[in-house]
TrEMBL record:
Residues 24-45 are annotated as: Disordered. Keywords: Acyltransferase, Signal, Transferase. This is Peptidase M28-like protein. It comes from Neolewinella xylanilytica. The keyword Nucleus does not apply. Residues 1-22 form the signal peptide. InterPro entries: Peptidase_M28, QC/QCL. The lineage of its organism: Bacteria, Pseudomonadati, Bacteroidota, Saprospiria, Saprospirales.
Amino acid sequence: MKSLLYVLLAISLALTACQSDANPPIQDMPAAVSEPREPTEAKPIPKFDRDSAYAYVEKQVSFGPRVVNSDAHAQTREWLVQKLESFGAEVREQDFEAEAYDGTNLSATNIIARFAPELEDRILLAAHWDTRPFADSPLEDDPNAVVNGADDGASGVGVLLEVARQLGQNKPDIGVDIVLLDAEDYGKSNGGKRESWALGAQYYSRNVIEPKPRFGILLDMVGARDANFPVEGNSERYAPELVRKVWRLAHSMGYGDYYVNERANGIIDDHFFINTIAGIPTIDIINMPRNDGSRSSQFVDHWHTGDDNMDVIDKRTLRAAGQVVLATVFREAAGTL
């Protein structure tokens, strides 16, 4: 994941308030301003299969690091397209060329799976499927360590593959675009420009397939045990209404231990560009552990290290992410989110 450029966007704004901010974010956000969907007969929310999601994460890791331009990257792309098509999605491969910060030419692909493509009213669900080409966490003492990206990349994709499988079997009355973004993790750490990150998200945001989704949810690092999903700053800045709805829904479903009512700093992740370029209000569900002052990173210890393997993945966390996303889709389709 990317975001070494932790954006302290507008320090004076509440969105970058630290986690000890006196006003919990999902209570003090502004009231809803958009027109809700007309309530319809609600369809049952499918049960998210955590074992299935885990198997999808494991399969991705079995290809090896999914670094852009590598054989593992090409093999993973083929497998992802095949799986999404098997679930009944209309799949488009959005190929693009991008120059990385170090001058490397990247031949990358965003994979766009559309469910109910005939419907105008649509939701975006996204994750990145590439991996970091090298280990550069402050906690990594081996610069040659292999980053397998079980959590940072594969977990979000694994969750969305299981969501896609459920959408193929249980059709909500709303369109869903599942977008697997590429070249997210090839950015420059330590002083690099924020635009060096999330290259696939930037390309997608400038080339959104119409009709444009009304809102989006990004999943990033949603597989580790004891995950902590705070209200990330740029999510609160650009999509406060959606944050409030999703976090309250998660609490009502019994997942309050994961979706904590605390603020975290804004970060540069795929959702930042989807918000600022495409204009699609998008939130980031991402594991950002509580900071007691002793951490050298905002992220989990295995982030950008050789420890990001299947050992860190917990099926309960995958379910906490996926079940809430499924409930969001079906509740929004029924006009009851």
